[in-house]
Amino acid sequence: MIQDTRNKIVDLHQVGKTESAIGKQLGLKKSTVGAIIRKWKTYKTTDNLPRSGAPRKISPRGVKMITRTVSKNPRTTRGDLVNDLQRAGTKVTKPTISNTLRRQGLKSCSARCVPLLKPVHVQAHLKFAREHLDDPDEDWENVIWSDETKIELFGKNSTRRVWRTKNAELHPKNTIPTVKHGGGNIMPWGCFSAKGPGRLIRVKERMNGAMYREILSENLLPSARALKMKRGWVFQHDNDPKHTARATKEWLRKKHFKVLEWPSQSPDLNPIENLWRELKVRVAQRQPQNITALEEICMEEWAKIPATVCENLLKTYRKRLTSVIANKGYITKY
């Protein structure tokens, strides 16, 4: 019942109308009118009163204990917490654990997979962000970004759940370290700039340094021409051993390509990761049924990615650098 109706009942009662008369006038049962009047006489209000409900099964001390446990080790399971409380003399169910931790601002989430960062990686990550924070947007627009990725035909990667607060998904305790490229159904190499996608090709064999140099020889310069890159454009690739091999460095030097110095294990700094995600979503929507179809659809959808998507990724590049600095060199959301 809305509050206005309750107030009308009290007003009509105060002017001397009976419960029956009030009920007929407002279209309510006499018993309902009587209950509202009795409540008003007893509590001097018609508002809903606080309800005590069932007592909490976990004491304040128990709440502190399980909150402290998951804060120290976010991978603690609900079963572990049920056992901890049982040893302390409190018997609860797993849903009770979930509800209690949710009231503390914690919820169970899938742990994010991020590269395994050593202290040297963190420092290099932070150094790159600080050194390039004030670079003009035009500099990033004149970079060709490149990488390889794994695109699966079917299957889901396994997940782990962690207890965390909002916006803490990338804290090192809440993530799963990963090592690059364990294989996959197809492995494309691609590149792009602020002007749009460059070439995308499928790597059909296990890539080595010679194959990588062949890919660059056949696809990098044609991509630069197609994208109409300005004089002095810069090439970006990560620190994969094939990329940093002496022969590859020498090849790039002889071709007079400027190469962006890159910190290891920094996918959040490479906007092509966002483009890979865009591609994978588009491919999944088309539901390829075999490897041949997967490859064809990848090529088609890559070519369809609008130049504006690429341009917008570079317009916000300074925000990436700011996030890395704010996160003290650890992986940020990308």
From TrEMBL:
Residues 65-134 form the Transposase Tc1-like domain. It comes from the Eukaryota. GO terms for biological process: DNA integration; DNA transposition. Residues 143-294 form the Tc1-like transposase DDE domain. It holds the Pfam family DDE_3. GO terms for molecular function: DNA binding. InterPro entries: Homeodomain-like_sf (IPR009057), HTH_SB (IPR057667), RNaseH_sf (IPR036397), Tc1-like_DDE_dom (IPR038717), Transpos_IS630-like (IPR047655), Transposase_5 (IPR052338), Transposase_Tc1-like (IPR002492), WH-like_DNA-bd_sf (IPR036388). Residues 3-46 form the Sleeping Beauty transposase HTH domain. SUPFAM superfamilies: Homeodomain-like (SSF46689). This is Transposase Tc1-like domain-containing protein. It comes from Hucho hucho.
